[in-house]
Every structure is written in C-alpha cells, then in structure tokens.
Design goal:
792 residues, 25 helices, Bromodomain, mainly alpha, single chain, nucleus, histone H3K9 acetyltransferase activity
Length: 792
C-alpha cells in the first residue's frame, strides 16, 4: 500500500470542507470512491421517495414476507422479469402491476404488501430509506475483504432487513450503549484547553479553540484501521479491547454516516481516552505529513495556524493523552470552577456538519530526523523512544484539580474579585510588554519566542543498536560531542564520545538553523525513580540568551511525561550557579540507597538534586508568573483606590494627651498595618547578657553540639573556607558574648543561625553533621521561646 494512500491529490489541507468521508465498503483506505458513496445514496433515496406509490410498494414488496393464506414462507417478492445487472439508465420505467406473481411463491405482489395499504407516506418513505441502506450494506458485505469488518456489515444488514419485515425502528442490541467511556474525547480536549491555556489572552485562547475544533473534527471523520491491520502494526496491544471499540465505531459512527436509518453518534462524544490513545500517534503523523506536503496550497491566513500552532497543540495534547497523572481525564475536572464561569465544554465542540479531508490509517513515512522531539512546535513520535501506549504507568501524586477542593482559609482573595481583575487583563494590550533586555524579563523569554517562531527546535535523540542508522541523527550526535568537548575542556573527549553515543544515554539537543548549538546528555533510571544529568552545555557564542533555562525546562516536561520526577547531577564549581537557578540544591531528596552504584562519581564536583512537580508546565511557567504578578499589581491598585480617603488630623494632643496606641489612628488598619508580634527585646543589658549566656550554655552542653564547639580546621575540611564565606562556631559566640557584642537578641540569633546554615551548606544531608545541625537548631529555638525572646 502506498504511503500516500487515502490522501487526495490537489485537495485542500487540514480542516478544509467540501469532501465527503470514505464510505464503508469503498475499499477502507482509498478515498477516491468515498465522495460518491454518500452522495449516491442520498440521490437514490430522494428519487425513490418521489416515485409513485405503486413503485414504492414494488420496492418494499421485495423485502416483505408474503401475507397470502396458507402460511406462505416466502420472505420477499421476486419479479418474474428481474432488471438487468447493472440496470440500464435508458430503460423506460415499466408500470407496476400488483397482480404480478412472485417468482418464488407464485403469490402476487399485492399479497406481499397488504400490510402497507394504510401506511402513511412518511412511514413508507422511512421504510424505503432502510431498503436502500440494506442494499448498500449488501454490496459492502460482498466487497469487504477484512473478516471483522465484513461480520459487522452483515450483522447490520440483518438488523435493517428485520426492521423492514417488522416495520420497526432499527435498534442495536449491545451490552453497552453510548457513551462507552467518560469523560469523552470532546470533554477531555476541552479540559485540556482549560488546563493548559486558560491563562492566555482572549485572542490567543480563541486560536487554541480553533485548533481544538479542528482536531475534534478530524477524529469524527477518521477511518480507523481494522483490528487485523492493528495487530500487524502493534502486536503487543490489547487486541480484544481495540476490536470491541472498532465494532462500536462501525455501528454507531461510521456506517450511520451513509446509512442514515441507523442512529449516528459523533466519535468524540461517545468514546474516551482509550480509543484516542489507539489512534493518536498514527493520526498525528498523517495530519502533520499532509500539512507539510500541501503547505504551498494553504491560504496565507491559515498557514501559520496549521504549520506552526497545530503541531505544538498536538504535541502538548499527546503528553496528556498518554499520562496517567493528567487531570484532564478526571470526571470532576471542572468541579472546582468558580460560580458563574462558563464551562469550556460549552465553547468548543466538533461541528457536526463539517466534512474534512479523508485521511488513511495506513502508515505514512515521516522524516525520522524529527523523531524524539519534545519541542511543542515540532514534536513527532520517535522510534528511539519507548512506546507510551505500551508503558505500564504508576499512579502519581495527587492531581492538581484536587487542590480546588481545599477549604478556603481566612485571608484568601475572593474568587469573584480574581475573575473581575482577570477580565481587565485578558487583552494582550493591557499587559505591558517586557523588553528582552529588561531586568524583569524571564531568563527563557527570548528562547521561548524563538521557538514559537521556529528559529530553534528541541529534539530528544540517541544512538540505537537496533534501528537503522539515521544520517541526520548521527550528524546531530557528532555536533553534540563537539559542543560538549569545547565547553567542557577538562572532560576527556573519549569519555564524552562514549557517553553521547551510548544507547543507554539520550540527549536533549538544541537545534538552530539545522546545526546543534547545545544539549543535555542524560541517562534515565526508571526503576530507581531518577535521571542522571551527565553533560549540559550551550556553545559559547549562543550563551546568555536563555537557551540553558529553556533546555532544562523542556527536559523537566519530558521527564514528567515519563513519570520520572528526580534529577541528580555532579556539578563543578562553574555549574553550581546555573543548576541553583534551575531549582537544584544540595538537599538530595532521593534516598542514598537508590543512587549509590548507579551514577558516576566525579572528584571535586558537588552532588545536586532537583525534584519535579508534575503540576507545573515548566516551559510556560515564567509566562504564568508574569500574569500572576500583573494580577497582584491590579489587586494592589484596587486596594489603594479604596483606601484613598483623607482623615482629619489628630486633635487629641491639643487636649493634653501625650501618646496614643498606633492602632487607634483612623485609617491605619485600612492600609494593611498590623500590630508587631510580641517578641520581647530586653532593654536591660545585664538581663539580656544573663539570658543569652544561659541559652548559650544549654546549647554547648547539648549532645548534638559537639561538631560546632570550635572553628573548623582547614586540615579536617579541605576547601571549607572557599564554600563558607562567613564561618561561625560556639567558641566565637562565647567570646563575643563575653565582650558584650550582643546588644540585641537579633545579633545573637543571627550568629547561631549562621552555624546551622553553614553546616547544611557544606555537608550532605545524609551526613551526621547535617543531622546534628537540624536537631540542635530545634533545641535552640525551644530555649529562645522559653526565655520569651520570641513568640511561642
């Protein structure tokens, strides 16, 4: 079968109308006969319904059992002179004779249609519609080669035949009736739009809604591959489950498009994530391939929408389709929506009358150079990555929507006020644009804009010993080896080459103008629940553009999709600052037993870790923060407008009053002022000295105070004073206390806190020193509270 099967040459691109979907029995994959299928049936029905009543009776008599006396078993009148096959178009229409005998039982045509004498014209037209559907399905049964499809056609043929004999309405007898899964595909896509894009300005959100409608429309007219075709393509798939859905789809969605006597449902309204998962990968490939092939024929106003925004939309949706941690498939996704908000599902739905292009379900050859991409604008399925459908996914953390159910606490801003403020800033013009050179712009803002314009791309690639080598991927791997070698001069080139080309390692590559300018090499340990980042670099002439931050954000979203929520890496002194900005710290969340023996240990480097939050869309996080800041700014402005009230001056002092409580000043509380907490600052120096001396003595005699008694010796902790700029210990504090340095409690508490902070900064969390610092800190604050120096 050709790769372009089913895609009509010269036809409009995605979302175009005017073409009819493929009819059942029209070959299953070729769309050339599809346009005529539905149209021919409609024309035949119109012609037959406009025929004289005797002609209608003759047609119905063929499918009506004989009513003559004597219990005749003939189940349909057969003419003595059957029309030629195929019928001649120039043949004159003969007069119908109700006395003409049946070729089978010899009873007259009138004996077969006596039950129709008093039937209304409307009911007769309904039965005639079923007759033509029966004839069409009879043709489908004989033309169809696939056994599963043929069986469904034959079952529907018998059902409609029975409906004519009994003059009833065809009702499918099944264990389950539509919908077969909730939430439906349509509801899931609407939830996806709400979940990912509700923060966008109205104009951008409208673009997303158009993409959602386009996608739903494509599914409603998509031709599913037969169960046998799917078994060949995905041998390990749930064959029984797919066959059940395929049968339902034929009966309720596909065949009723042409046989309108059967009740018709939209695919997106009665099926859910299970069916979507089975078709998404193939469908996505073919849609994007079709768009690329016919990009020159697209109207200019649709070109950007289809070639730029649609691929990104499909990539982001794919992550939610194949992830168990996605909240969009929850039944009560919108349960936490504020009152009065229009549910998104009332805005987006697939147009029921639209007629999109017919697309084949046969595999389409896709440029493998794009495989493994995680760029929202460019992502395609990868032969190098595990198939998400076949992965066994574990239940994740509580879903984000559950946070909507939490009880409101005192101080929460009313949701009505939030909605009111949001309405004032949905217009993009209302949000001040931040210059990319501004100190307030996000680090990844420039990179994000370049990605949207298609200047840069992100791809997850790796070497493979099983797949046929791909020239472009191999070139990119060589480019990555060069970038890492130049930017990491202290790392042996042979070592870099070995890891970059190791099949167990993958690399998130940053591509600009077709060449590699950066990347992150990593190795995933799914069984241990973490990934080790091995190399991370951007070529020197492309730095300070936010590429490093955007690279890491893409890597985080890639791992959330694969349900690995921890990063580990050894960072040298030049990389510690970068990793801190990306959310890494020396506080390792992964138990030591999980990673010891798995990751590579580097001398002179610092082990750092990062825990991912699956609820955060990392590549869009700075945009969300920017909008939140704007909301807060608007709320402050509203608050200020409310309190701009001029109060009369205080006259109490003229009456001899020397002082008044601050809280009694009119308007002071409206400004947000609150009384200062009752942390007692001792005014008597001797009393303060005595209290601090007692607390210090307690700390020094505590069982966990031994590591902090004296200054750290350089011989015992090499490099300590390069890491810790402001050292502190209990001996130094005793000397300061004796010299009356601590004139306030804050100075004393600051030095004590520095001891604990320095310890945690230099020592790993699993060390004994780290644990001593935590326990001693807790004890110290207990004593401070007991002394009344801070509130309990």
């Amino acid at each position: 079968m050709a790769d372009s099967a089913g895609i009509q040459q010269g036809s409009p691109a995605i979302g175009a109308s005017g073409l009819v979907p493929a009819a059942p029995g029209a070959g299953g994959t070729e769309g050339s006969g599809a346009a005529g299928g539905s149209a021919r049936i409609a024309v035949k029905k119109a012609q037959l319904r406009s025929s004289p009543r005797p002609k209608k009776l003759e047609k119905l008599g063929v499918y009506s059992s004989c009513k003559a006396e004597g219990a005749c078993k003939c189940n349909g009148w057969k003419s003595q002179n059957p029309p030629p096959t195929p019928p001649r178009t120039d043949q004159q229409s003969s007069t119908v004779n109700l006395q003409e005998p049946c070729r089978s039982c010899s009873h007259t045509l009138g004996d077969h249609v006596t039950h129709l004498e008093n039937v209304s014209e409307e009911e007769m037209n309904r039965l005639l519609g079923i007759v033509l559907d029966v004839e069409y399905l009879y043709t489908c049964v004989h033309k169809e080669e696939d056994a599963d499809t043929k069986q469904v056609y034959f079952s529907l043929f018998k059902l409609l035949r029975k409906s004519i004999l009994q003059m009833g309405k065809p009702t499918l007898e099944a264990q389950e009736s539509p919908p077969f899964e909730k939430p439906s595909i349509e509801q899931g896509v609407n939830n996806f739009v709400q979940y990912k894009f509700s923060h966008l300005p109205s104009k951008e959100r409208q673009t997303i809604m158009e993409l959602a409608k386009m996608f739903l429309n494509q599914i409603n007219y998509w031709q599913l591959e037969t169960p046998s075709q799917r078994r060949q393509r995905v041998p390990n798939d749930d064959a029984a489950g797919y066959k059940a859905n395929y049968t339902r789809w034929l009966c309720y969605c596909n065949v009723p498009q042409f046989c309108d006597s059967l009740p018709r449902y939209e695919t997106t309204q009665i099926f859910g994530r299970t069916l979507l998962r089975s078709v998404f990968t193939v469908m996505r490939k073919q849609l994007l391939e079709q768009a690329r092939q016919e990009k020159d024929k697209l109207p200019p106003e649709k070109r950007t929408l289809i070639l730029t925004h649609f691929p990104k939309f499909l990539s982001m949706l794919e992550e939610e389709v194949y992830s168990h941690s996605s909240p969009i498939w929850s039944h009560d996704f919108l349960a936490g929506a504020p009152a009065g908000q229009i549910p998104i599902h009332t805005v987006i739905s697939a147009p029921p009358v639209a007629r999109p292009l017919y697309y084949s379900t046969s595999p389409v050859s896709v440029d493998p150079s794009t495989c493994g991409s995680v760029s929202p604008a460019r992502k395609t399925a990868s032969v190098l990555e595990p198939n998400p459908v076949g992965e066994k996914r574990k239940p994740s953390e509580p879903l984000p929507y559950e946070e909507n159910k939490r009880p409101r606490v005192v101080g929460d801003i009313p949701m009505e006020l939030i909605n009111e403020v949001m309405a004032t800033i949905t217009d993009p013009a209302a949000i001040p644009e931040t210059s990319l050179l501004s100190a307030h712009s996000a680090r990844d803002e420039a990179a994000r804009l370049e990605e949207r314009r298609g200047v840069i791309e992100f791809h997850v690639i790796g070497n493979s010993l099983n797949q046929k080598p791909n020239k472009r991927i191999l070139m990119w791997l060589v480019g990555l080896q060069n970038v890492f070698s130049h930017q990491l001069p202290r790392m042996p080139k042979e070592y870099i080459t070995r890891l970059v080309f190791d099949p167990k390692h993958k690399t998130l590559s940053l591509i600009k103008d077709g060449r590699v300018i950066g990347g992150i090499c990593f190795r995933m340990f799914p069984s241990q629940g973490f990934t080790e980042i091995v190399f991370c670099a951007v070529t020197s002439n492309e730095q300070v553009k936010g590429y490093g931050t955007h690279l890491m954000n893409h890597l985080k979203e890639y791992h959330i999709k694969h349900e690995i929520l921890n990063f580990l890496t050894y960072a040298d002194e030049y990389a510690i600052g970068y990793f801190k900005k990306q959310g890494f710290s020396k506080d390792i969340k992964v138990p030591k037993a999980k990673y010891v023996g798995y990751i590579k240990d580097y001398e002179g480097a610092t082990l750092m870790g990062c825990e991912l939050n699956p609820s955060i869309p990392y590549t869009e996080f700075s945009v969300i923060i920017k909008k939140q800041k704007e909301i807060i700014k608007k709320l402050i402005e509203r608050k200020q407008a409310q309190i701009r009230k001029v109060y009369p001056g205080l006259s109490c002092f003229k009456e001899g009053v020397r002082q008044i409580p601050i809280e009694s000043i009119p308007g002071i509380r409206e400004t947000g002022w609150k009384p200062v907490g009752k942390g007692k600052e001792m005014k008597d120096p001797d009393q303060l000295y005595s209290t601090l001396k007692t607390i210090l003595q307690h700390v020094k005699s505590h069982p966990n105070g031994w590591p902090f008694m004296e200054p750290v010796k350089k011989t015992e902790a090499p490099g300590y004073y390069q890491v810790i700029r402001f050292p502190m210990d209990l001996k130094t504090m005793s000397e300061r206390l004796k010299s009356r340095y601590y004139t306030t409690r804050k100075l004393f508490m600051a030095d004590m806190q520095r001891i604990f902070t320095n310890c945690r900064e230099y020592n790993p969390p699993e060390s004994e020193y780290y644990k001593c610092a935590n326990l001693l800190e807790k004890f110290f604050y207990t004593k401070i509270k007991e002394a009344g120096l801070i509130e309990k």
